[in-house]
Amino acid sequence: MTLRISERGRRMPASPIRKLMPLAEEAKRQGVRVYHLNIGQPDLETPASMRAKLASAPSIYAYSPSAGTADCLATLRGYYRRLGLELAEDEIIATTGGSEAILFAMMACANEGDEVLLPEPFYTNYVAFATMAGLRLVALRTRGEDGFHLPPLAEWEAALGPRTRLVVLCNPNNPTGTVYRRDELDALAEFCRRHGLFLVADEVYREFVYDGREATSVLGLPGCEEIAVVVDSLSKRYSACGIRLGCLATRNREVYGACLRMAQGRLSPPGLAQLVATGAAELGPEYTAGVVAEYEARRDVLFRGLGEIPGVFLRKPEGAFYFVARLPVEDGEDFAAWLLKEFRHEGATVMVAPAQGFYATPGLGHDEVRIAYVLKKDDLQAAVRILARAIPAYREARAPGAVGATRADR
Amino acid sequence: MTLRISERGRRMPASPIRKLMPLAEEAKRQGVRVYHLNIGQPDLETPASMRAKLASAPSIYAYSPSAGTADCLATLRGYYRRLGLELAEDEIIATTGGSEAILFAMMACANEGDEVLLPEPFYTNYVAFATMAGLRLVALRTRGEDGFHLPPLAEWEAALGPRTRLVVLCNPNNPTGTVYRRDELDALAEFCRRHGLFLVADEVYREFVYDGREATSVLGLPGCEEIAVVVDSLSKRYSACGIRLGCLATRNREVYGACLRMAQGRLSPPGLAQLVATGAAELGPEYTAGVVAEYEARRDVLFRGLGEIPGVFLRKPEGAFYFVARLPVEDGEDFAAWLLKEFRHEGATVMVAPAQGFYATPGLGHDEVRIAYVLKKDDLQAAVRILARAIPAYREARAPGAVGATRADR
């Protein structure tokens, strides 16, 4: 008998961000400095108050309750209380990163073969979770000219099908940096309520809003108790991506129950991560304010710098620490590979994430890249200088009739 | 519109082990000491060499590679090498506990609606992962009289259907304590090969084998390169359940690829856990030998003690740190609840796991309980003394015509 893996196993997408990694590693082996604008791994230290908690680790690293330790849950609930969102003990579950929370939410809200509506471009790993959950993503296009804000309701209505079960919204948005306005959220929530859809909001970048904006949690929208499921993570908020701690919060009893039972299946969230998380309780508002000010300054460096490069289009990013920029190139993937393989300026190059991987609709995003601004300002300035030289050089190299105008191997 | 959660969300099973927990907590509130024979949380310290690694945690808790850090993977591969199993770098993935490894394996090997063959009683959380993966568990009964060894091949053949895709085997077995003999494994592997089935082996209790036995890994079975997928965990081996670190090992390229892509979706396994795991490289064979000798002695205390209680039936457990014992009771769940609610001996009682939850077939296991021997010998002896008194007392309380012979509320 021949042995075949599952269809869903074959369909599982390779990470489009990570597949350029071998090229970056090869460049580094050659001594080239690579500025990583491709991933959202902040360079800020994990707060000392959180790291200090490891000193109190017990001598037996035991299972915790499936929903999280009492201390960890109290810290998470205290955080939400400061946002004005009271969550009962049985409305929040500590998860293994935001990743597990989104998988739990998808599985609790929809069955295999059901559909999810979401704006594109979207966080590319949603495809992985949807594939695991057997869900089909139905993407609604958003456009850079509109700052990637939500399409009008008529488009949502048109995308609705008999198997639509939920909407997934990342707010503030990865990859676009869009912060949805209250009126957009109210209209979307009303649409969900009218059609019996869950509204799953990935709010891991909640604090990262600029120019005086505020991010609205779906947990705070009136009349959304039944439909709202929040996916959250400590990764970005506290520069603690590697611990893998997030949470799922919902006031829907059935969704909570189903997610808790999934949590029981995997026994407990990571214990040392939960211990570290309790250290967040000691961080005052000045911690977040400082971090956000730093990211806002970084955004400004890139927005100003890239905006001055001829042919580059981007609206001012509103939140998170990403944006999607349109470049004067035909194929962002080829450009990203070329940067790593062929372009050097003062011994350095830049890695960007081609935006194709953030779209479900084939053909979209080919002339766009996602830029993350998680590096120090000096490094971002250096990256801008490199891109300002690289873009015209690439156009020249790829111009019809240019020497070596074949596309780089991918 | 009414909002309904998914069918699979509704079907997600509550943990049968954890649902008696409120009764245990209530007993403790009353000042009663509860000996936990119900869960596999060892009371041994996590090795100091592993805990010491936390001191070298970096100041940024960053994402790791999706398959695990180079150091963590080197430690895992070194461990397998000492077992005589050479694994290439791209044959092993660090996972968030064995739990994630089993979910990945199920999803990579089978599609929604496909079937899994496995002996029952089985580790109850397989139901949770199968429900998440949309798989149907088809259980083959094993019996205490046979030491819960595998049923004859004719029964496997009879259970086979057009949608059977894999066999899941836990070896050494939780909950039965059975260590499968080489001839059983060879026959089962041959059955899998003949019918094009994957053989997913949960080998997290590999070291815990007694009376000179050896546990055979399916990775070492000749001709099984394509079918063998091993699920492993550091939880029990190093008394480090809470860190949530395990691995998936396979030589099947497609299964590895699909699981790696799932791993990329969730970004990385827990970072502090991976750091702690590298400390295992400093543990010599005397560490494992000492731990196993301790568990063997604990097993002996319980096997001898329980075997002397009239009406109790069990064969000598061969491995892991559990066994399933038949008790002279009609309903193990009622008995377990009664122990927590009504029975006290010298201010203490015992918590056991009713075995019903470990069977897929309704009606099986009602007179059995799973016993874990992860407590110190003194505590186990105290637990035996309690059970020796509790079992006749329960029989008397539940005897027809006895005062208060109604079943306890559940």
Structure in words:
Two copies of one chain form a homodimer. With 410 residues, chain A is an alpha/beta fold. Chain A folds into two domains: 7-45 and 286-398, Aspartate Aminotransferase, domain 1; 48-282, 3-Layer(aba) Sandwich (Aspartate Aminotransferase, domain 2). Chain A is 36% helix and 14% strand. Chain A contains 13 helices and twelve strands. Chain A has a seven-stranded mixed beta sheet, sandwiched between helices. A three-stranded antiparallel beta sheet of chain A has the order 9-12-11, with helices on one face. In chain A, strand 5 (164-170), helix 8 and strand 6 form a beta-alpha-beta unit. In chain A, helix 5 crosses helix 6 (126-133) and helix 5 (97-109) packs across helix 9. The longest helix of chain A is centred in the last third of the chain and has 23 residues, at 285-307. Chain A is globular. Chain A starts with 6 loop residues before the first helix and ends in a 12-residue tail after the last helix. The interface between A and B is large, with 83 and 83 residues.
Overall CATH class of the largest domain in chain A: Alpha Beta
Instruction: Give the number of DSSP strands of chain A.
Output: 12
CATH fold name of the largest domain in chain A = Aspartate Aminotransferase, domain 2
CATH superfamily of the largest domain in chain A: Type I PLP-dependent aspartate aminotransferase-like (Major domain)
Count of discrete alpha- or pi-helical segments spanning 4 or more residues of chain A: 13
CATH architecture of the largest domain in chain A: 3-Layer(aba) Sandwich
Series of H and E elements of chain A: HHEHHEHEHEHEHEEEHHHEHEEEH
Strand count, sense and barrel status of the largest sheet of chain A are: 7 strands, mixed
Radius of gyration of chain A: 22 Å
Percent in helix of chain A? 25-40%
How many structural domains does the protein architecture of chain A include?
2
N- to C-terminal separation of chain A? 35 Å
The spatial strand order of the largest sheet of chain A comes to: 2-8-7-6-5-3-4
**Percent range for β-strand residues of chain A:** 5-15%
Structural class of chain A: alpha/beta
Largest interface: A-B, 83 and 83 residues
Average pLDDT score of chain A: 95
**What is the global morphology of chain A?**
globular
